Hints:
The protein is an alpha+beta fold. The protein contains 14 helices and 20 strands. The radius of gyration is 26 Å and the shape is elongated.
Amino acid sequence: MPAVGExxxxxxxxxxxxxxxxxxxxxxxxxxxxxxxxxxxxxxxxYRLSELTVVHLGRGSERRAEKAxxxxxxxxxxxxxxxxxxxxxxxxGRWVLVDTESKNGSIVDGHTTKRAVLTDGSLIELGHxxxxxxxxxxxxxxxxxxxxxxxxxxxxxxxTLMPAWHGELSRIRQIASSEIPMLIEGESGTGKEVIxxxxxxxxxxxxxxxxxxxxxxxxxxxxxxxxxxxKGAFSGAQSDHPGLVRSADGGTLFLDxxxxxxxxxxxxxxxxxxxxxxxxxxxxxxxAIDLRVVAATHRDLDDMVADQTFRHDLFARLAGFRIAVPxxxxxxxxxxxxxxxxxxxxxxxxxPGFDIDAARLLLRYPWPLNVRELEQALATxxxxxxxxxxxxxxxxxxxxxxxxxxxxxPVVLSEGDQKVRxxxxxxxxxxxxxxxxxxxxxxxxxxxxxxxxxxxxxxxxTYR
Length: 464
């Protein structure tokens, strides 16, 4: 294994190496430096922990990682961190954070602690720097021990610290320069158009990127908007109009929400893709076109083809290469880099960054509406914060409360109930979710602990 320190200062390639005999991914413990509050543009770093006996964390003059034997030392230029702030080490099959000589304390999942057993997804705050611990993240055996990404590493939307998504993005890079049509599938708001734009950039096609929202086109105007029309073709056609398809000549046509395209227009689009020519409404001669087609949908086109609500021959023309974009709930390791990408785009270069409370809220919120929701939250913060630090009050109510749109209102606990809940949570964390051990520690019957767990909406498995 190469020394981790040798990788510092350079952004490692995220291209697949394509070697024969490549080993498959295996789950292993990983630490992600997600976000530096004062330097959101610095990006995120993923550290593999499986072959380490201890990780030392502290302040340094610059961000760097140095490996000596089986020990890793991570330095961050954070004035709120101590030079010997904390360490993370394995203990009886788990990983434990121990506060060493810090002045401002170490916080795990919102609780100040001297020692805490880390669970999958634990959010660690040291000074004004946030880390996320993953207990079992699948990693390729030949992957670097350190992977560092910044917002400038390639087109927006195709950088990731998530191993499975990294593999898909590598395939996208390989295929982007070809003429193969691509179908991007995923939930609304996952960034399908961002990926389509990245594909266009990587293709180096000379023409423009033309997005078309198929679901927003009035059914009676689909063909005239897509294929154009000749002057006098219908009432109101006072001049020739090239249409969206011809506007993408030499470039990329992005058909967003292709599943919403009316059945009456699917046959016309199929002909365009087959013949590589467009017949404007009212025209007598087809016009040759050269374009790359990228389509996207949040619908299940396979089911639509089976139900005969989407043409199978059109589907075959669109699905040369299929990409399934994961929801943001499955990309928690990428939250920091995504925040950095959006921050770099929205905020001025001299902006001071995030207050620690705001950063904590951003990393703890579940983002059920995906990247679009994150983008809107930061856009709101940019307007409200102006040139000042982004604080909690600059974020949307949903993010501050941790209650996504449509979620039931949380039960308001009395002061006494809250105290009991805090005791149970602390005991669950200390005893790694073992209910019997919690009962013994609190000197209560096991059934009472189970009643409290149910009442307070706790899940012991999240503490294991």
